Amino acid sequence: MNASIQETCLSLLLAAVAAGLAVTAMGIPGSAHGSIAPSTFPTVIAWLIAALSVLNALVTLRRASGEGQMKAMSARGVGNIVAFLAVSTAYVWLIGQAGFVVATLAYLLIMPVFVCVVSPRHRVRLSRVSFWATLVVFAAIATGAIYGVFVELLNVRF
């Protein structure tokens, strides 16, 4: 498959998934009560991703005629993107089911492992105790920090 056609198709796939995530995010429970609703930021970010993906698809189609040296992505690379989108979609769904803290902690624990699994260069890290210790500490601190920013500073109530 031509690289520009492949990039256009992946951009449109990402736009469709992001639009679906935006619609799903609008259903995240919680009320505003004078503050920003819990669904606001995921919805805005998802729509922004969808819009930028469509823009990327249009730019790719426009420059397709003059390009020829760009290599198409392998089937494994496409599979990695689809897997990433599936995990990210599951994260948004899990926020509504299990809450922000549980979903974010799980996502921050899963994604670095996913990157190490799909990247032969980083796969060796999975055997190191220091990797797992750092991962758990980072995920816990980052989840707490994000929760603190949204709940305490921005007054978002879940």
TrEMBL record:
Tell me which UniProt keywords the record has, alphabetically: Membrane, Transmembrane, Transmembrane helix
Looking up InterPro entries in the UniProt record yields: DUF1468
Write out the transmembrane intervals. 44-61, 73-94, 100-119, 131-150
What residue stretches are annotated with the DUF1468 domain?
11-157
Taken from the record, one Pfam family name reads TctB
Q: What protein does this entry describe?
A: Tripartite tricarboxylate transporter TctB family protein
Species this protein is from: Larsenimonas suaedae
